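TICKET: design request
STATUS: open
ATTACHED STRUCTURE:
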């Protein structure tokens, strides 16, 4: 009996060419196609060599799918390209994250109400530039992006008609030690300062409260000027936009359930001040 790979018809038409200048993702797709053709292989040949389906190779070259890091390593081994495909994969991930930030920022700028929960980090709207650098993913820091986001976010909360911001943060994100305590003290002071704004409400979920729904991950629910709602959930390599009304409603309920476990605004300020005092007294700080 022939294998599924061998049964793939060799004359399936290939995806139409895309412009590799459009994005790093398009360039990666183009590289796969070019290297395959230079090696004199069909899509079926490459599929057999990597033990994948012909359809998957077609999807890679047509940008409908991106090979993961493991398959990029196999492509490098197959084509003898050292770590070329693996490097391109890493660059694609950063490009995706940057694109996601831009997409989110577009909605954030228009929102009349922002409700956000973060289990591991200070919410983006309340981050200092130093904190952004300290928590940046591995790789070179994009200073232009940090500058732009700092200016944009500061403008959102200090504009004439700012949105109502309800920020709930897990206590662990506030008390976790950092390699640079000075940056964290600056960030905590910034939270106290921003918390004095009339439409900014910052609350912490105490560690002593045990498990809560927030451990399932960060979330954001935005209310737009027309009263429609948009949600975001975050993941390792970006985020997902949620526009289905039922899903956004569920996301909002989850936020309310998490917030119900949080300290009051005044108790949260006390927690932040106590944390700053402990950091000040720490000789290692």
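STATUS: resolved
RESOLUTION: sequence designed for all positions
ATTACHED SEQUENCE:
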């Amino acid at each position: 009996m022939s294998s599924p790979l061998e049964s793939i018809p060799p004359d399936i038409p290939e995806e139409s060419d895309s412009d590799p200048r459009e994005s790093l993702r398009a360039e990666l797709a183009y590289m796969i196609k070019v290297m395959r053709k230079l090696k004199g292989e069909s899509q079926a040949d490459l599929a057999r060599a990597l033990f994948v389906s012909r359809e998957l190779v077609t999807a890679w070259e047509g940008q409908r799918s991106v090979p993961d890091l493991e398959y990029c390593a196999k492509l490098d081994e197959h084509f003898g390209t050292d770590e070329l495909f693996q490097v391109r994969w890493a660059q694609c991930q950063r490009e995706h994250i940057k694109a996601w930030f831009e997409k989110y920022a577009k909605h954030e700028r228009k929102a009349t109400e922002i409700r956000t929960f973060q289990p591991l980090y200070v919410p983006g709207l309340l981050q200092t530039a130093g904190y952004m650098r300290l928590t940046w993913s591995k790789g070179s820091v994009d200073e232009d992006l940090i500058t732009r986001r700092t200016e944009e976010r500061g403008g959102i909360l200090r504009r004439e008609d700012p949105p109502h911001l309800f920020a709930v943060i897990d206590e662990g994100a506030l008390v976790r030690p950092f390699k640079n305590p000075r940056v964290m003290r600056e960030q905590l002071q910034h939270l106290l300062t921003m918390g004095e704004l009339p439409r900014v409400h910052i609350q912490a979920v105490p560690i002593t409260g045990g498990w809560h729904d927030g451990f399932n991950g960060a979330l954001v629910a935005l209310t737009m000027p027309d009263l429609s709602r948009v949600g975001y959930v975050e993941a390792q390599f970006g985020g997902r936009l949620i526009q289905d009304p039922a899903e956004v409603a569920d996301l909002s309920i989850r936020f309310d359930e998490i917030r119900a476990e949080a300290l009051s605004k005044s108790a949260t300020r006390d927690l932040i001040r106590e944390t700053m005092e402990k950091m000040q007294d720490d000789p290692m700080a």
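CLOSING REMARK: The two ends are 68 Å apart (CA to CA). Residues 84-110 form the longest helix (27 residues).
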